[in-house]
Amino acid sequence: MAKLIESIELEFCTISLREDDIVEQRFVREDPYSITAEVLQEFDDTIKKICNGEQKCILSIPGLYGSMTPEARKVPVFKDANHTIAIALIIQSLSQRLLANFFFKINKAPYPVKFFKNEIEATLWLREQNQAHQSTSQVS
């Protein structure tokens, strides 16, 4: 696991910048939580702060018992996504996978989003995305 450079603790989630330049969003594992529209805004503000104006790849590790309120599902989550290169989601349960597939089919992300069963595969993919982004940025 990569070393954390900076971390911001929220109510049921920690958002960190790792030494491999990936932003990690790690939710509480065992405790139930509900994501509201206000919480989504807090996540976005915190990720922007951690990114410090730079584009980063994001590794999101949801907990086992998370949910999203109907109001939060209506929030246009990709309206200001210029700080994100790609997102890797660690999804282990079938119910989470079905909900995530449904969410991302309705809400088209302007960057690559991929689901993984473990952090190692997700991290390798994000490093590839980061490297491809840096190569494209240097050519431009």
Overview of this protein structure:
- With 140 residues, the protein is of the alpha/beta class.
- 38% of the residues lie in helices and 29% in strands.
- It contains four helices and eight strands, in the order E-E-E-E-H-E-E-H-E-H-E-H.
- The longest helix is centred in the C-terminal third of the chain and has 21 residues, at 119-139.
Helix/strand layout:
Elements (H helix, E strand, L loop, with lengths): L3 E6 L3 E6 L3 E6 L5 E3 L1 H15 L4 E6 L4 E3 L1 H4 L10 E7 L3 H13 L6 E4 L2 H21 L1
Parallel strand pairs: 3-5, 4-6, 5-7, 7-8
Antiparallel strand pairs: 1-2, 2-3
CATH superfamily caption: STAS domain
Strand order of the largest sheet: 1-2-3-5-7-8
Topology, number of strands = 8
- Largest sheet, strands/sense/barrel: 6 strands, mixed
Supply the CATH class.
Alpha Beta
How is the CATH topology named? Transcription Regulator spoIIAA
**Topology order in helix (H) and strand (E) letters:** EEEEHEEHEHEH
Number of helices: 4
Runs in which pLDDT lies below 50 for 5 or more consecutive residues are: none
From the spread of the alpha carbons, the general shape counts as globular
Q: Any descriptors?
A:
6-stranded mixed β-sheet, single chain, Transcription Regulator spoIIAA, globular, alpha/beta, two-stranded parallel sheet, 29% strand, 4 helices, 140 residues
